Amino acid sequence: MPKRVPLSERKSSTPKGVDAVIQPTDNETVDKNEKTVEKVTLYIRPEQVIALEQIQLQTRKRTGKKPKKSELVQEALDLLIEKYS
Q1: CA 1, CA 28: separation in Å to the nearest integer?
Q2: What was the pLDDT predicted at 60?
């Protein structure tokens, strides 16, 4: 029977298998702009979800690239912060 090893020790050991190929991510990740982001849960109205999806579709038609909803929400938050600063 193999010895049980605590998760904290396994994470600090040399990665094996799939973990050696794919870098694991934490709740805190780095996006394309090299900025640290944090995961949060937000509740928005259904019409806001639809509007975000419409913006994604319009942007995809215009540029060929579909932005992530989190990027759009970050942009909206930046505008809100600027307004109240």
Answers
A1: 36
A2: 96
51-to-5, 65, 68 alpha-carbon distances in Å: 48, 17, 13
* Segment 27-83, tens digit of pLDDT: 444 445 567 889 999 999 999 999 999 999 999 999 999 999 999 999 999 999 999
Which residues have C-beta within 8 Å of that of residue 30, sequence separation ≥ 6?
A: 36, 37
Q: Which amino acid is at 21?
A: V
Distance, in Å, from the CA atom of 31 to the CA atom of 36, rounded to the nearest integer, reads: 7
Structure-derived torsion over alpha carbons of residues 39, 67, 32, 72, reported in degrees to the nearest 10: -50
